[in-house]
Amino acid sequence: MAKEIPSVGDLRRKSEITDTEIAAATVAYLKDENAEPFVFESGHRVDVAKAIEMHPQAKKLLADEATTPGLRRTMVMTAVIMGFPVQG
């Protein structure tokens, strides 16, 4: 059986990625949607834009200009946590 790729949430549960880093990845994306993939201290990185693209609800709400800033932040953070990082 192939080894399963851990999500950011899985790495968070293992204490390899912190809530502070997830919040920083969220803020970086909200400041610049074209930002480079976010690199965590563990060496993992996540492409936040790709994580959002793969999360239908986040994609839909972020495309809607009427979505409040708080909901935008929540949806980006959710997409980051559910996203799949790569090492190095």
Q: Can you describe this structure?
A:
- The protein is mainly alpha-helical and 88 residues long.
- It has one domain (8-87).
- Helix content is 53%, strand content 8%.
- It has five helices and three strands, in the order H-H-E-E-H-H-H-E.
- It has helices at 8-13, 19-31, 48-53, 56-63, 69-82; strands at residues 38-39, 44-46, 86-87.
- Strands 1-2-3 form a three-stranded antiparallel beta sheet.
- Helix 4 (56-63) packs antiparallel against helix 5 (69-82).
- The longest helix is centred in the last third of the chain and has 14 residues, at 69-82.
- The two termini are 24 Å apart.
- 28% of the residues are buried.
- The model has no long low-confidence stretch (mean pLDDT 92).
Q: Roughly what percent helix?
A: 40-55%
Task: Please give the count of helices.
Answer: 5
Question: How many domain regions?
Answer: 1
Shape: globular
User: What is the terminal-to-terminal distance?
Assistant: 24 Å
Strand order of the largest sheet: 1-2-3
Element pattern in H and E: HHEEHHHE
> How would you state the average pLDDT, rounded?
92
**What does the main sheet amount to?**
3 strands, antiparallel
Total number of beta strands: 3
**Are there runs of 5+ residues with pLDDT below 50, and where?**
none
Rg from Cα: 13 Å
Strand content: 5-15%
The chain-level structural class is mainly alpha
Q: Topology of this structure?
A:
Elements: H1 8-13, H2 19-31, E1 38-39, E2 44-46, H3 48-53, H4 56-63, H5 69-82, E3 86-87
Antiparallel strand pairs: 1-2, 2-3
Helix pairs in contact: 2-5, 4-5
